[in-house]
Design goal:
The protein has 117 residues and is an all-beta fold. It is 0% helix and 34% strand. The protein contains no helices and eight strands. The protein has strands spanning 17-18, 21-24, 27-30, 35-36, 41-45, 62-72, 90-95, 101-106. The strands form three sheets. Strands 5-6-8-7 form a four-stranded antiparallel β-sheet, with no helix packed on it. The protein has a two-stranded antiparallel ribbon with strand order 1-4. A two-stranded antiparallel sheet has the order 2-3. The termini are far apart.
Length: 117
């Protein structure tokens, strides 16, 4: 029995295939099937290490997006969090095949919409 431990796998390792080869002084034997590596990793946000500052013009409509580029297993839920803001003019939606895009829409932005989203 041969065991191998993969160390420090990254998302791009997902789907990598391997086969086994046994060699001794009588010859070489190839494994009859391939082994495929499945790497699980958390959702990755586009602009993950960047603070995004957007200035909205009061009285104008604006739309902001929160994008997740990938996840394995696929994203189950994306939740948009509103700061202490009870404004009725802010809509939150989640779209995409795997719920990977969060949309924040400001209908006639107001100074009360200020804060982190």
């Amino acid at each position: 029995v041969f065991r191998y431990t993969f160390m420090n796998t990254i998302s791009t390792d997902n789907g990598t295939t391997f086969s086994c080869i046994a060699i001794n002084n009588k010859g070489t034997q190839f494994q009859s099937h391939l082994l495929t590596l499945k790497v699980h990793y958390p959702p990755l946000f586009v602009h993950e290490n960047e603070i995004l500052l957007r200035q909205l013009r009061q009285g104008k409509d604006h739309t902001l997006y929160c994008n997740v580029s990938s996840a394995n297993p696929p994203l189950i839920h994306l939740k948009l969090i509103r700061p202490n803001n009870t404004s009725k003019n802010v809509e939150f939606k989640v779209k995409g095949k795997h719920n990977e895009t969060g949309i924040i829409h400001f209908n006639k932005a107001h100074v009360n919409n200020s804060g982190g989203y």
